Structure formats: C-alpha cells, structure tokens
Amino acid sequence: QKEVEQDPGPLSVPEGAIVSLNCTYSNSAFQYFMWYRQYSRKGPELLMYTYSSGNKEDGRFTAQVDKSSKYISLFIRDSQPSDSATYLCAMRPSNTGKLIFGQGTTLQVKP
Amino acid sequence: NAGVTQTPKFQVLKTGQSMTLQCAQDMNHNSMYWYRQDPGMGLRLIYYSASEGTTDKGEVPNGYNVSRLNKREFSLRLESAAPSQTSVYFCASSANRVRDTQYFGPGTRLTVL
Description:
The structure holds two protein chains of two kinds. In chain A, 0% of the residues lie in helices and 58% in strands. By secondary structure, chain A is mostly beta strands. In chain A, a hairpin with a 6-residue loop joins strand 4 and strand 5. The model of chain B has no long low-confidence stretch (mean pLDDT 93).
C-alpha cells in the first residue's frame, strides 16, 4: 500500500464549479502538507503549503488538513479553464525534506 | 532569474548507452533533488544533495549516479540505460532541506529503446 493515495481522475467540471481534490495518507509522522499544480509538459509548481492540521486560504484556493483522519483536501472555488492541470499532493515529516507525493489528480475545467 | 533549469529537454537513448542530465539553479539554494515521474506512480525521489559536497539515496536510486558539482549544479548520470528508465526527470531545489519548499525545473523527457 502506498503511503499517500490520490485518485488520479480525470475529473471534469464546468467553469465556475467548486472543485474538491483529496489525498489520504498512512504515516502519522507527516507534519507538512503541500499541493503542487502541474500543467501539461511542465514542472510542478507549489500552490499551497500547510503545517499540521487546519485550513489555509489563498484567493480561490483552500487547503484543509485533518490529521486525525489522515486526510487532506484542496478546494478550488469559481474554477476557471486555466485551472485545468494535474494536482499533486505532497507531504513530509518535520525532520526531513524528503517529500512523498501522491500520483496526482488530473482536472479539466470546461468553459 | 531563471530558477531551476534542466538540459536536455528531450533525449532518446538505446539500451546500454550512457548519458548525463544537467541541472542548475540560480536561487542560491543549498539543497537539490532528482525525481522521476511515471504514469500512475507520481514523483519518486532518486537522489538528493542536502548541501554542497553531500549526496544521499532516495527512494529509487538503482541505476543512477549523481554529482553535486558546486552549489548551483547537480547532475544525474545513467551509466547503462535500460527501458525501465524511460521517464520524465525533474530536478528541484530548496533553500534548506528540512524547512523549505522545493522548486522544480521543467523536466527532461527520456526514452530508452
């Protein structure tokens, strides 16, 4: 079983929809949680960065971490065609920089 | 400020050939990383360099070697390429290995025939 599980999709939504992307994990030592966005044939770029449990909001994006359930989410409000990309969750313990990635969810936002 | 750059962008090799993937960063970061990305597998760490002069194995190091040439440059070498090494390779860097986020290059698409 993988340490981090992420539904690969693809997920297709109409423009303006609220998108929910999720990852589950098994390692209770994970303390730092990230979401990366990767456009086709490009490198991943950091979207959201959260430490421990709680919510973090940045514009149309909200990241949630529920450590008790070992579950993290990324919400995208008022989704745009430009949000069409693969979204990768990543996480690590506090004492190492070694990131463990989910396999990524491909999102398509249709105009 | 180019961030993380990688060369080449594309490469086709025959089984048994060798090659070196180059990576450079201009952000004065201490730590650098090499990942491979395969369908359904996400990104997996091959090797990393926490600081200049040090390198360590990641999750999938077999068949690869690395060199931290200086603070800016971190190369990945395939000594005898195999079809299983067909992948997209990403280099990344971070200011400090433990605390800081990683910034990725554009990737190298490698096909081994």
